[in-house]
Amino acid sequence: MFFTYLRRELRNRRKQTVVVAIGLAVAIALVIVVNAISTGVKDAQSEVLESVYGVGTDITVTQPAEGPGEGGGPGRFDFGAEDGEASEDGTRNLAQDRLSTAMGSTSFDATALETVAGLDHVSGVAATLDLQNMSFTGEMPDPSEGPVTMEMGPDGSGEGSSGGSSFEIDQFTVTGVDPDAAAVGPLTTAEVADGRTLEAGDKNVAVLDATYAAQQELAVGDEITVGGKDLEIVGTVSSTTGDGVATASDAYLPLATAQSLADLADQVTDVYVQVDSADNVDAVAAAIESELPDASVSTQSDLAEGVTGSLSTASNLIGTLGTWLSVIVLAAAFGLAILFTVSGVNRRTRELGTLKAIGWSKGRVVGQVAGESVVQGLIGGAVGLALGALAVWAVNLAGITLSGASGGGFTMGGPSGQAPPDGATVQGDAAPGGGAFGDRSDALAGAAGNAVDIVLQAPVSLWIVLAAVGLAVLGGLLAGVVGGQRAARLRPAEALRSLA
Amino acid sequence: MYQIDDLTKTYRQGKRVVRALKNVSLTIGDGELVAVQGPTGGGKSTLLQMLGGLDRPTSGTVKLDGADLAGMNDTQLTAARADTIGFVFQTFNLIPTLTALENVETALVPSKIARQTRTARAVAALESVGLRDRGDHLPGELSGGQQQRVAIARALVKNPKVLLADEPTGNLDEETRDEIVDLMVGLWKDQGLTIVLVTHDSVVAARTPRRLRIAKGTVKDLTAA
């Protein structure tokens, strides 16, 4: 009788049932979509972070540049009059390599590594030395024949006023890593593409990013000049994040080799920290800050905030607008369900009073009214689930591409965040009398930040499905409780009133 | 059947206190058919509420087969209504979304008997009011007289001790009214049912052996010798 009566009632007031169910369905669908996209965006953010900081890194420790002049970066090339070999016409062939810390970062003493390793809840640490290598090769006219002036235009292009010069500036990023600490750090998201990765005891060898190697037409067995020294390339690595995504650096050297080439003995630029449990991340970060007052300590969530580009826009949009929209629509749907249930009870005063008069208990009458609302909620939940799944499916099918960049503390010029990750090289192929420095800012942004295009994949978890159905039932239950209370207060004598 | 002593019922209507029944004492024996007449607002419906356990008196006792309805809690009253008292209303009060048969079955829902038995008894009850072939009709598809027959079947299906009817012919034309009165008188004669019939129709009242008149909260037995 319960189900027969319930079914007939819902069918009889079909319009109300449909309106309430649709209201709940839209709210549920919205909750599912917002949650799925938000999860998708978070996944994308952590992918961006992983491509830069490696898997399993909870905290990174760096030291900010103390002033504009203090940071590293591609400094000047200084050539004396006697440098290079003068050819017969007086032009000199010049080549110089400069290896220094990457722009915006400062090296600090490697003892920080032991300090951090000694803290509670730290399960893994690794230090890296992020460097930038700039090499200059070319020929310059005899400086004694006249001053060489270079005028830089507003777009960064340069032009030599004195004829006869031809040069090339090559720039790439170099990271010194400790092969022993392979569990943490940038190389954890890299997989060997060719040859091998760095091993303990390696010295004066290099592993290249596969993308960079292909671009430079370098292969395993070739040599690469870093800081003026030729190193054997023992392997190439590619990112596990996706095809065509560059790894964090163009070249990887054993930490000791990098330190000696850059003349930065016992210095590092980044410490990667793994914490035993996510609950302890904040505590460990605070401990590091107090142990190393000069250091800049970033947790994964700090780093997530540093992700720029459309990914960050999407994250903000979902985070605020999506959540509030869900809450408002959910509240409206609940309100609608309650309103219709209460008005339904009011309309059925005599009917429900009659049932009480012929011996239906209060509980049975309340249960009947509440049951109708809960079933409405279930219908709404089911429709909402289908609607939400459809919407999420559409979002995934649409293949929305989010681009995110996570810089090492700065981004520079150009359409940052969209700079291709392979744009890490400046090539000024200067004809005599002209030096082109175009695309410089783009290239620097690409070198410093790490832009990754990620197709948004919005997952629907079992948990959110259960939560959504739970919300729908809750909406129905809430309406049922309010309507049922009203029904419970009804006096059976209402049945005797001849006018309803 | 009923033993009523010194029954008073007062209502509060805003600031006004209405004394619907004043110190009523009354006995209704087993198997009696009693008509209750009187002007509107005289206390007819209030008396019926007291007899049916729909409301509690302000003072006095209403004993149904020795059990005082005035002293019962909600659960006990609900049980009494479910088991011993059958109601018939002026406006029939059938559930519009349920068929005639299902409406009759609703009266058996509180007794928690097996579904098959419930349906069989409902079919028998419908047959006893001459509507066996209308079981699958919705109330809206039945005439007023047919609806009241279904309502009577609903009241009788649980074999109550007493049938309380509140203006059962009030919404019916004369011909149908006579049919319903015939039916009720027949049930009274055949089954020895105790029936209390509230009506302002003297034609209906004339069919009953005992007539009470309620006016201004007091009862007068018109048939008392």
Automatic annotation (TrEMBL), chain A:
Superkingdom assignment: Bacteria
Keyword vocabulary terms for this entry: Cell membrane, Membrane, Transmembrane, Transmembrane helix
Domain ABC3 transporter permease C-terminal: residue ranges: 325-395
GO MF annotations, alphabetized: transmembrane transporter activity
InterPro entries: ABC3_permease_C, MacB_PCD, Macrolide_Exporter_MacB
Cell location: Cell membrane
Record-annotated MacB-like periplasmic core domain positions: 17-290
GO cellular component, one term: plasma membrane
Membrane topology: Multi-pass membrane protein
Region (Disordered): 62-90
Spans through the membrane: 321-342, 374-395, 460-482
Family per record: Belongs to the ABC-4 integral membrane protein family.
Protein name stated in the entry: Membrane protein
Organism: Promicromonospora soli
